[in-house]
Amino acid sequence: MTGRIAVLSEGSAAESVADVAYRRIRADILSGRLKPSEKLRLDRLKLDYEASVSTLREILNRLASERLVVAEGQRGFQVAPVSVANMKEIAALRLLLECDAIEKSFQAGDVEWEARVVAAHHKLARFEERMARGEREASETWKRYDWQFHQALISACGSKVLIDAHAAVFDKYLRYQMTALSFRGRIAEDEHKAMLDCALRRDAAAACETLRRHVEGGMAHALATGTIR
Question: How many CA atoms lie within 13 A of 147 on its CB side?
């Protein structure tokens, strides 16, 4: 299973107990319910996620390979910590992948792609309005629609490898969004609207410049508010 906004996706009826537990634990790490550096006690996880200890060990080792969990040898596991340096590295990689995908997608996109981008922005804009009114209970849906909008922008790039790589990095960036990067109000709304306009007129250079401001502005806001050190 790749990233793909797993923090908020629904599981299928055919999923095994291990699949469901993996998806839930991963989602709780990305959303911040399981906090950075939190110790992951197997006895507690067994109750919370209804999986055996052996299954949980396999899941945590899998998440360690994704660098969302840290294996501490005989001392067990903990949620991977967050740091300014790591946030900057993830943001830089996201920009590299997303701008490459935007250029390819803007060149190849057709009217169906335009429709996906417009629809995704419409949903995002509605929840940004709710966030601006202080409805913080909407934050998880807001971030899902944020992901869907950025995914729609690159969806015509023609490379599954690039889309999968972007999804994996975006998941790690999403974790910072949920735990450290707070809503910036009208600035973020305007940046998303500008990226929509760039898509419709196929201006990849302007879209990437707006994306750079969007990502760097979010990080600067997090540092200024002290939500990550």
Answer: 26
Q: Is 71 helix (H, G, I), strand (E, B) or coil?
A: strand
Over the stretch 26-43, which tens digit does the pLDDT of each residue have? Answer: 989 988 889 999 999 999
33: left (phi over 0), alpha (psi -120 to 50) or beta: alpha
Q: What are phi and psi of 71, to 5 degrees?
A: -85, 125
Give the integer Cα–Cα distance in Å for 13 and 64: 26
Q: What is the pTM of this model?
A: 0.81
The per-residue pLDDT for range 175-193, each reduced to its tens digit, is 887 776 666 778 989 999 9
Q: Which CATH number fits domain 84-225: 2.60.120.560, 1.20.120.530, 1.10.3210.10, 3.40.50.720?
A: 1.20.120.530
Angle between the 139-154 and 160-179 helix axes, to the nearest 10 degrees? 160
Domain boundaries along the sequence of the chain:
17-79, 84-225
For position 65, what pLDDT does the model report? Answer: 92
